[in-house]
């Protein structure tokens, strides 16, 4: 079956699924393989649950009238997604960067959906599987699609761009994330900049942070670019009004008060405003959209519990975002400041140095109490409270949970530090 023929089947189906736990009637099930599973084994289950067809790549599981046999299900999913992207008339905005991708994507979608029919990446499904699934969510009436693209090694963004073929692009920032895969900070910049390379070679438009020296340098000779800045009068002007603790800003005489904590969220708001203006959404409507947006999924959430005000920022962490979170928390008003910070992953040979730097920064910031959690932080030379495992922390907090405190919880996803909420 050709991709063109498979696309006709897809258009007659209601959706695409790669998980039998999420089968819906008349969907198209793709039997993907993983390190510890073989999706082909679940083809019959998918059909029983109501799938229109199961796409398999193992002849053993092929059944005429129920399955579609292909050479490689993942490659077929990706090719189908690219075919559908070309078939659709929707314009596509692609986002990548070291920090803030998901929040930025959500903000852009909140603004654009005021006027347009949009589709956006769900959660952080931003890899070689999630990106195709998002493309396949584009409907006949979709006008704008906002796709988040993640990467932990070079050439990954280049590959995702070949699937997405974006009309517009934005890089949030270049930070110390996924150093293990990229090899160095320069490797991160090179890898993320693959989005710029695609857009340049295809004469597409870049949105950028005009106050970021790396972005300015990378784009100095780029013709199709639109930037925002606090200082450059030639760019879209947006002024920070601080974060006490929520980000406030002003643009074109209109003040916007967000529900996002920390100065590090200022640029995330800026690009949403810039893109909204580019797509001719009135500033008053942009203001309403940004102010209505509420963070979720462990990203800079404010939670009140047992007389504590808790900033839960436990979705992910790297040295850049950890430093920003600590500095922002230190600058915030309030007493009895307690922080729980967990290990940062995928740092390779730099792990020991980066964890020591963050431990030293936390100690120098003079918080009332600091808890370092995880093997990497446990091995630092630090006078702070250190716990090798979450279980050790749990035992310690049994009769010592903070009360009446301002609390920050920050760590990599694998640390699952949102569990601390059950302890305090």
UniProtKB/TrEMBL annotation:
Residues 299-412 form the Mur ligase C-terminal domain. Pfam families: Mur_ligase, Mur_ligase_C, Mur_ligase_M. Keywords: ATP-binding, Cell cycle, Cell division, Cell shape, Cell wall biogenesis/degradation, Cytoplasm, Ligase, Nucleotide-binding, Peptidoglycan synthesis. It catalyses: D-alanyl-D-alanine + UDP-N-acetyl-alpha-D-muramoyl-L-alanyl-gamma-D-glutamyl-meso-2,6-diaminopimelate + ATP = UDP-N-acetyl-alpha-D-muramoyl-L-alanyl-gamma-D-glutamyl-meso-2,6-diaminopimeloyl-D-alanyl-D-alanine + ADP + phosphate + H(+). ATP binds at residues 97-103. Residues 96-275 form the Mur ligase central domain. One of its GO terms (molecular function) is UDP-N-acetylmuramoyl-tripeptide-D-alanyl-D-alanine ligase activity. Coiled coil: none annotated. This is UDP-N-acetylmuramoyl-tripeptide--D-alanyl-D-alanine ligase. The lineage of its organism: Bacteria, Pseudomonadati, Bacteroidota, Flavobacteriia, Flavobacteriales. The gene is murF.
């Amino acid at each position: 079956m050709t991709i063109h023929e498979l696309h006709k089947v897809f258009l007659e189906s209601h959706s695409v699924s790669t998980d039998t736990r999420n089968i819906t009637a008349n969907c198209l099930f793709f039997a993907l393989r993983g390190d510890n599973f073989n999706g082909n084994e679940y083809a019959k289950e998918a059909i029983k649950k109501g799938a229109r067809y199961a796409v398999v790549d193992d002849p053993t599981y092929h059944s005429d009238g129920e399955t579609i046999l292909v050479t490689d299900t993942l490659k077929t999913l990706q090719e189908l997604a690219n075919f559908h992207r070309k078939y659709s008339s929707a314009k596509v905005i692609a986002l990548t960067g070291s920090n803030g991708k998901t929040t930025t994507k959500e903000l852009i979608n909140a603004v654009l959906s005021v006027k347009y029919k949009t589709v956006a990446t769900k959660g952080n499904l931003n890899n070689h599987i999630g990106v195709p699934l998002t493309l396949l969510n584009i409907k006949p009436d979709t006008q704008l699609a906002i796709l988040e693209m993640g990467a932990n090694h070079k050439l990954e963004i280049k590959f995702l761009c070949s699937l997405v073929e974006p009309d517009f692009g934005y890089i949030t920032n270049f930070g110390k994330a996924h150093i293990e895969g990229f090899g160095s900070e320069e490797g991160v910049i090179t890898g993320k900049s693959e989005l710029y390379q695609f857009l340049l070679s295809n004469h597409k438009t870049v949105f950028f942070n005009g106050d970021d020296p790396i972005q300015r340098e990378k784009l100095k000779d780029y013709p199709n670019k639109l930037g925002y800045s606090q200082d450059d009068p030639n760019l879209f002007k947006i002024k920070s009004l601080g974060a006490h603790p929520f980000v406030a800003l002003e643009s074109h005489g209109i003040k916007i008060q967000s529900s996002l904590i920390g100065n590090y969220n200022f640029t995330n708001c800026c690009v949403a405003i810039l893109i909204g203006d580019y797509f001719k959404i009135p500033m008053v409507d942009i203001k309403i959209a940004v102010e209505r947006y509420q963070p979720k999924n462990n990203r800079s959430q404010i939670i009140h519990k047992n007389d504590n005000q808790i900033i839960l920022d436990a979705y992910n962490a790297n040295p850049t975002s950890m430093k920003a979170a600590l500095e922002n928390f230190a600058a915030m008003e309030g007493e009895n400041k307690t922080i729980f910070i967990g290990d940062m992953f995928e740092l390779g040979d730099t792990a020991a140095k980066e964890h020591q730097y963050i431990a030293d920064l936390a100690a120098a910031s003079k918080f009332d109490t600091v808890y370092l959690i995880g093997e990497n932080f446990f091995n630092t030379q630090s006078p702070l409270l250190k716990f090798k495992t979450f279980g050790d922390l749990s035992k310690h907090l049994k009769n010592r949970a903070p009360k009446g405190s301002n609390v920050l919880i920050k760590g990599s996803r694998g640390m699952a530090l949102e569990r601390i909420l059950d302890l305090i």
